[in-house]
Design brief:
The structure holds two protein chains of two kinds. Chain A is mainly α. Helix content of chain A is 75%, strand content 1%. Chain B is an alpha+beta fold. The N and C termini of chain B lie far apart (63 Å). Classes of the chains: A mainly alpha, B alpha+beta.
Chain lengths: 302, 424
């Protein structure tokens, strides 16, 4: 009898607790549902209809997805975006790690340097792009004059006028804008590495490079992984920097995937095609992140 | 107290709902009054000076209040699309005349045919613009401003180069000869200039050269390209040679339209086709004395691109009577004189002819407007104005690319055709 009573009471308490849990999580569920699930469902529905700006949509099934694969601009944009992602991620991670190592030790001036490197990250990406657009302009910008005064170039540099120039000028701006932000993330990772480990390495007679490859990098791996995921995802979704700096030019050489979605929706008024493109990009991003995270986990186990 | 408030609110909501129903079902409700309304009007930045002058003059009358929103040219389509998707279009919507067909196709505008039929306006307004805003016999918008492409030349530089400042070029090859003479002045002076990375600038200035000698750009229904190596070929070749010879500054290849008129306004460019509405924006100075002349073709024919904007009432507006009050007012003879011609712009009415006292530039504008064309195509924006569209790729390949012009035309024409094809 007694045990049954306890059991009963226990069960009632656990029922109470789970009801309580459901009630407590309701607001969060509601927010996720309203802000994520509903728009996502709407997006998928939109991609399978012919969706006019004014008037009633009509169901067309997967026809839009078929058409996307025949769009050369979208396919070229995929390759360009992948290329940009690779370049940006490698360079950005390297520069950010370099900066983090530079300001890792607390010594005279390191606080100032940390702040200086981080400052660009406090600026909106569109604003930063506009700033650099002016810097790159040979009419009003000082960059070409500066290089000429230093004797590095003979004539004004055509920053954004050639396909390669446009890509690398944008990469340079993006590194300037994001390196400080990733530096801070890496710095927290660096400072979590116990001093004793470094001391032990020093006692064992390890040089700087040996310490870096043998201790810093392995122990920094989770932080580096975070930086990689952020950089890859951000670069795959690149839009503002190219919209402002190059407008996709010259000769469509810097059109990113998101640019084509934007063009399809807002220049060509083709909302359902843009929705289908977005679904494709979403699936690709989810897959990319699954791959990256599983690689990181695999590394953790070994 | 709480319940009381709730009751009040419920009552208010119900009353509002009833009112809305009454207004939409009734023929004449308060919301459809001709006066006492606040109207919203959107226009792109290119037309700001003219539209603002209309709006300010109208608001002073006290009949209705028009609230003007000016949208940057490059983002106009995006803003309109977003507003249409959210059912929040303004009452009055301006459109670059070449976009009119597309806006009509998306159902943005309401038919003005019956209201126009009660006036004599249809006989008096610029026919090319009226035509561009017509679909299936319905008239969806009316001319708002005209922007004509013409040759602008700097008389100061003409004199310095030993050219006669009263003799503008009479053919495209002659324009480039003048440009060559002026280029020879050196010292940062260029013979000519053009928007080599600006799809709108290129079509606005190059197409009249094709029309001038009887060529066509588009098929009559605007669903395919009619360009070939005989019509546009020699024109693109002339520009290609001119750029290769350095008659235009190197930066012309990157000019995306933002600073298109700057070099000419500064007085460092000899002769170039530009737009009539830019005249207001370029005050003359020591180094700049402006002459205007019709755009000429290879053989010396004249033509112009009749650009500019049309204005219509949106299909979602609930204040059509008041909106029509504004629209019809802008088209009256007195207002056209007061707002447009007195400021140096061409009237959208064909019955306002220049008189002896008319400014000579405006006189030239009037002279070319009858020769001009408004090309129309449903997919005009996507094909020609879009920086990612096929026209800019084509024109840039022809002027700056490695292949000969003929090869480029043959290669790019199918892309233009498929972009223009409405069914595809």
């Amino acid at each position: 009898m007694r045990s049954t009573g306890t059991h009963h009471r226990h069960r009632r308490r656990s029922t109470d607790r789970s009801t309580q849990a459901i009630v407590l999580s309701l607001p969060a569920a509601l927010v996720v549902g309203l802000l994520f699930v509903v728009p996502l469902a709407l997006l998928v529905w939109m991609s399978m209809t012919d969706w006019p700006l004014l008037g009633e949509p009509s169901f067309v099934g997967l026809a839009q997805y078929d058409a996307i694969l025949d769009d050369p601009l979208f396919l070229d944009a995929i390759w360009f975006t992948l290329r940009y992602t690779l370049i940006t991620t490698v360079l950005l991670t390297a520069v950010a790690l370099g900066l983090a190592l530079l300001v890792q030790q607390t010594r005279f001036g390191s606080g100032f340097l940390r702040t200086a490197f981080f400052l660009p990250a406090a600026m909106g990406l569109a604003v930063a792009s506009l700033l650099w657009f002016a810097l790159y302009s040979n009419e009003v910008g000082p960059l070409s004059d500066l290089l000429a005064t230093l004797g590095l170039v003979d004539e004004p540099v055509n920053w954004l006028g050639t396909p390669d120039g446009a890509l690398w000028s944008t990469v340079l701006m993006v590194i300037w804008r994001f390196a400080g932000f990733y530096m801070i993330i890496l710095l927290t990772g660096l400072q979590a590495i116990p001093d004793q480990v470094y001391e032990a390495a020093r006692i064992d007679g390890a040089g700087w490079w040996r310490t870096f490859t043998g201790i810093t990098v392995p122990l920094l791996r989770p932080t580096l992984a975070l930086v990689l995921v952020l950089s890859v995802t951000g670069s795959l979704l690149a839009f503002e920097q190219f919209y402002v700096l190059t407008g996709g030019g010259p000769d469509n050489s810097t059109v990113t995937v998101v640019s084509t979605i934007f063009r399809q929706a807002f220049t060509l008024f083709d909302l359902s095609w843009a929705a289908a493109m977005s679904v494709v990009v979403l699936i690709a991003l989810v897959l990319a992140n699954i791959v990256q995270l599983s690689l990181i986990r695999k590394g953790d186990e070994s | 107290m709480r319940e009381n408030t709730f009751g009040h609110r419920l009552g208010a909501v119900l009353a509002a709902a009833l009112l809305t129903t009454a207004c939409t079902s009734g023929d004449v409700g308060d919301a459809d009054a001709e006066t006492g309304q606040t109207l919203t009007l959107w226009t792109r930045a290119a037309t700001e000076a003219q539209t603002r002058a209309f709006v300010d003059t109208y608001n002073d009358l006290g009949r209705n209040t028009v609230e003007l929103t000016v949208v940057p040219n490059d983002t106009y389509l995006q803003q309109v699309a977003t507003a249409a998707g959210g059912r929040s279009l303004p009452d009055l919507l301006g459109a670059d005349v070449v976009y009119a067909r597309n806006f009509i196709r998306h159902g943005f505008y309401t038919d003005l045919g019956d209201r126009l039929a009660e006036t004599d306006l249809l006989d008096e307004l610029a026919p090319a613009h009226l035509d561009a805003a017509t679909a299936d016999g319905a008239q969806y918008a009316v001319p708002h401003t005209l922007d004509l492409s013409l040759i602008f030349y700097n008389k100061v530089l003409y004199r310095e180069a030993g050219l006669d400042p009263e003799r503008p070029p009479t053919s495209l090859p002659e324009m480039m000869e003048h440009a060559e003479a002026i280029s020879a002045l050196g010292d940062g002076i260029s013979g000519t200039y053009f928007g080599g990375n600006c799809p709108g600038c290129l079509l606005f200035t190059l197409w009249p050269m094709v029309w001038a000698d009887g060529g066509e750009i588009l098929t009559p229904d605007g669903t395919a390209s009619a360009m070939d190596s005989e019509t546009i070929g020699p024109i693109l070749q002339t520009y290609r040679d001119a750029y290769a010879e350095g008659l235009a500054p190197e930066s012309a290849a990157q000019e995306n339209g933002i600073s298109w008129l700057q070099p000419f306004a500064q007085g460092t460019v000899g002769v170039a086709p530009l737009g009539s509405t830019m005249l207001r924006l370029m005050p003359e100075h020591e180094g700049l004395e402006i002459g205007v002349a019709p755009i000429r073709g290879m053989d010396g024919g004249e033509s112009t691109f009749v650009g500019g904007d049309v204005l219509g009432i949106t299909a979602t507006s609930t204040k059509t009577a008041a909106a029509w009050d504004f629209l019809s007012w802008t088209l009256t003879e007195d207002v056209q004189r007061e707002v447009l011609t007195s400021g140096g712009d061409v009237s959208v009415r064909t019955d306002i002819a220049p008189t002896d006292g008319t400014d000579p530039h405006l006189r030239t504008f009037h002279q070319v407007v009858d020769l001009g064309r408004v090309p129309t195509a449903v997919n005009f924006g996507a094909t020609f104005n879009d920086p990612q569209g096929p026209w800019l790729q084509f024109a840039r390949a022809a002027i700056f690319g490695p292949d000969p012009v003929d090869t480029t035309i043959a290669e790019h024409r199918p892309r233009l055709d498929s972009a223009l094809d409405v069914a595809g």
